Every structure is written in structure tokens, then in C-alpha cells.
Amino acid sequence: MGVLTPTYFDKEKGNTMKILIAYAGKTGVTERCAKQLAKECTTATLANLNEKQVSPENFDLIVVGSPVYSHKLEPSVKYFIKDNEKSLQEKQFAVFVTMVEEDTFDKVIAHEIPESLRQRAFAMQQFGGEVNDLTSFGWHDRLVAKAMVKLESKKHPIALRLEALLDFAKILKEKEVKK
Ligand SMILES: Cc1cc2nc3c(=O)[nH]c(=O)nc-3n(C[C@H](O)[C@H](O)[C@H](O)COP(=O)(O)O)c2cc1C
């Protein structure tokens, strides 16, 4: 387990927010979003919470990203929020999720993110989701996922919504240069 230190000084823009994008996932969809968001920022530190421990202490702005599985966030993301709830309350805070059952977003957020952080968040967004690789799941999860995709695809495309990611990135970039 490595401990991350922030990279944050931008020569052209001067003093920018120290941004941490802490995320986790199972099949790479959320990771792709986290990396895309990091690219949109001048400097952001990425941390895959399934691989590394990271403390929010050294950062000004924390973005938490997670997929939704069985109406819940990835456990490592949930623990990161729970373990650092107090510290996160003093930071700029935002959340994104990738998910397929898009109309359950509000319910999932209300259940999974403590109220104090929901109130504090400057952005909470779902980016849609993808179901690509089911090989790492057991037979029951595969069945559930296939049924979910079949049902949801009647309502909306099963895909990442790039425009939602770019809107989120825009808000993030505005925050980045304000200190
Ligand atoms: C077994 C399984 C269960 C899932 N459960 C939900 C769910 O409860 N709600 C939802 O909106 N999406 C659900 N999804 C969709 C995932 O959130 C979506 O595929 C996500 O983009 C995966 O991100 P990841 O690759 O970062 O893990 C599920 C997917 C699978 C395979």
C-alpha cells in the first residue's frame, strides 16, 4: 500500500486547489471516468482506493467516484467516506457515480453519502454506466446484471454520458483556480 502526496503547483496558473480524485471500481468504467476528469484539471492526484490508502488531509478539494452495485457504492469508497467524514466536511467535496439504473441515483446517494457531506457537496452527478465484462462475477450477479441491462435499455442507452462528465469537469475546473 502506497501513501500518496499531492502534486498541485501549476507554474502558469500559480496557486491552484490541491485536488484528490479518490475512486474505485470493478471493471474499469469508473476508473476511466476518474482519469478523464483528472486530464481535464490542471493537476489532480488520482487514487484507486482498491489499491492505495490515501488521506484527504493534504488536499483542498476531494472528488469521490464509485460505481453502484446492488444499490451501494464500492466498499472501499464507502469506507473512505466513513473513515474521513469529519475531515471531508472541511473540504470542497464532490461525488460522481457510474451506474445503469439511472432513476435510482437520488435514492442511492441519500443512502450512501452522509447528510452532512451531501449538503456540503458542490456537485453530485451520475455519468451513466457500462456493463462490459461479467467474467469476474458469479452466476447470480451475471443474471441480475443481464436482467437489469435488458430492463434499463428500454428506458435509456446503457452507456457513459460524456456530456455529464464534461459538465462536472467544468465545475471542477472553475473551483480549481479559486482559492
Ligand atoms: C452485478 C452487477 C450489479 C449492478 N448493480 C447495479 C445497481 O444496483 N444499480 C445500478 O445503477 N447499476 C448497477 N450495476 C451497473 C454498474 O454500476 C456499472 O456497470 C458501472 O459502470 C460499473 O463500473 P466499474 O467498471 O467501475 O465497476 C451493476 C452491474 C453489475 C455487473
UniProtKB/TrEMBL annotation:
Which residues are the signal sequence here? none
Provide the GO biological process annotations: heme biosynthetic process
**Entries under InterPro entries matching the protein:** Flavodoxin/NO_synth, Flavodoxin_dom, Flavoprotein-like_sf, Protoporphyrinogen_IX_DH
A Gene Ontology molecular function term for this protein is: menaquinone-dependent protoporphyrinogen oxidase activity
The record places domain Flavodoxin-like at 19-159
Domain of life of the source? Bacteria
Query: Per its UniProt record, what Pfam families does this chain match?
Result: Flavodoxin_5 (PF12724)
Name listed for the protein in its UniProt record:
Flavodoxin
